[in-house]
Amino acid sequence: MWKSDRTPPPLCAGRAAEDMMRLALEEAKKAAADGEVPVGAVVVRGGEVVSTGRNRREHDKNALAHAEIEAIDRACRALGGWRLWECELFVTLEPCPMCAGAIANARLRKVTFGAYDPKNGAAGSVFSLFELPITHRPQAEGGLLEAECAEVLTRFFKDRRERKAQAGNGGR
């Protein structure tokens, strides 16, 4: 529900939505290059990028340093408030319960994610926080550029397993 007398800006659709997800994928690739689980996020208002974020848990030594949290924090600072009514979030992986809660608390209009997370997804895979009777329920849509988003994660974890196996074999 829109809680303003202003008309909200249009949501991204079609090609524009894919472009935003590609920006999130670039953030995910930066995270992977830093040895982080490759998840990237972008907050958008009226088709314009407000902020970006990527996983930094290892770097920051902080369990809260998820891509969505970083992007939301930066958007709040950039826009000067915690209510992101006019914004939407693009993220490469289905939000976890913590991030889904942050998305709802920030009052984002919509979250669009790429890959589904069958082990920890809180936007439909394991459960949907956004369908519970909470104060704010953003729209949620999954599967945008799903194959590309999943591939970044698959490659990261495959490379990580191979490095561990090599280390276990004396690096041979």
Automatic annotation (TrEMBL):
It comes from Candidatus Fimenecus excrementigallinarum. One of its GO terms (biological process) is tRNA wobble adenosine to inosine editing. HAMAP family: tRNA_aden_deaminase. InterPro entries: APOBEC/CMP_deaminase_Zn-bd (IPR016192), CMP_dCMP_dom (IPR002125), Cytidine_deaminase-like (IPR016193), MafB19-deam (IPR058535), tRNA_aden_deaminase (IPR028883). Transmembrane segments: none annotated. Catalyzes the deamination of adenosine to inosine at the wobble position 34 of tRNA(Arg2). PANTHER family: CYTOSINE DEAMINASE FAMILY MEMBER (PTHR11079), TRNA-SPECIFIC ADENOSINE DEAMINASE (PTHR11079:SF202). Binds 1 zinc ion per subunit. It catalyses: adenosine(34) in tRNA + H2O + H(+) = inosine(34) in tRNA + NH4(+). It is an enzyme of class 3 (hydrolase). Its cofactor is Zn(2+). Zn(2+) binds at H66, C96, C99. It comes from the Bacteria. Pfam families: MafB19-deam (PF14437). The active site is at E68. GO terms for molecular function: tRNA-specific adenosine-34 deaminase activity; zinc ion binding. Belongs to the cytidine and deoxycytidylate deaminase family. ADAT2 subfamily. CDD domains: nucleoside_deaminase. Homodimer. Its EC number is 3.5.4.33. Residues 15-127 form the CMP/dCMP-type deaminase domain. This is tRNA-specific adenosine deaminase. Keywords: Hydrolase, Metal-binding, tRNA processing, Zinc.
